[in-house]
Design goal:
heterodimer; A: mainly beta; six-stranded mixed β-sheet; globular; B: 114 residues; mainly beta; seven-stranded mixed β-sheet
Chain lengths: 108, 114
């Protein structure tokens, strides 16, 4: 059973910020929240991960709700190369749980 | 360093046959996980191996099996292939999958069952 819920698709304009939500209401205390993205004809690639605190890296930011039941991946300035399927994944002692992913469409 | 490699990249089989897919993890990584990706179901976790032992398993029938060798290379086997087994099979490696470790995915093996 999927433990993460994401919108099927989202659309944004180039050079604007994008907020991709993920709900994980049954997250356990030891589950890490990971985000991966998959470009066409490629395997998924790592974007960012966190446990409790918000995280920033050169690709994106991850905002984690205080109760950890949801998180948001933030792309600060979307480019056409960011068009991909974004997966929110819980990784913990019980293994990995995928959502269906959000297909992000970037309009020029 | 070299990434995760999967062989073969493409495979065509017929119903009832069996297939073995191979995954070579990044050097130093001891955990290998396998996933099935189909258009309808998305990415689904098959199993994870760490130090030659299956540590976690997804909800797949017993026709799907795997193993890991002492050099961390892993194979997955699907017996008695069905049309629905047509999918992209992805392998990912990490140091132990303890939550905080990044998974590195290979390019996948595209299996077509006729």
């Amino acid at each position: 059973d999927a433990k993460t819920t994401q919108p099927n698709s989202m659309e944004s304009n180039e050079e604007e910020p994008v907020h991709l939500p993920c709900n994980h209401s049954t997250i356990s205390g030891t589950d890490y929240i990971h985000w991966y993205r998959q470009l066409p004809s490629q395997g998924p690639e790592y974007v960012i991960h966190g446990l409790t605190s918000n995280v920033n890296n050169r690709m994106a930011s991850l905002a984690i709700a205080e109760d950890r039941k949801s998180s948001t991946l933030i792309l600060h300035r979307a480019t056409l190369r960011d068009a991909a399927v974004y997966y929110c994944i819980l990784i913990g002692a019980d293994g990995l749980t995928f959502g269906k992913g959000t297909h992000l469409i970037i309009q020029p | 360093k070299a990434g995760v490699t999967q062989t073969p990249r493409y495979l065509i089989k017929t119903r009832g046959q069996q297939v073995t897919l191979s995954c070579s993890p990044i050097s130093g990584h001891r955990s290998v996980s396998w996933y099935q990706q189909t258009p309808g179901q998305g990415l689904q976790f098959l199993f994870e191996y760490f130090s030659e032992t299956q540590r976690n398993k997804g909800n797949f029938p017993g026709r799907f099996s795997g193993r890991q060798f002492s050099n961390s290379r892993s194979e997955m086997n699907v017996s008695t292939l069905e049309l629905g087994d047509s999918a992209l099979y992805l392998c990912a490696s990490s140091r132990p999958v303890g939550g905080g470790d990044t998974q590195y995915f290979g390019p996948g093996t595209r299996l077509t069952v006729l």
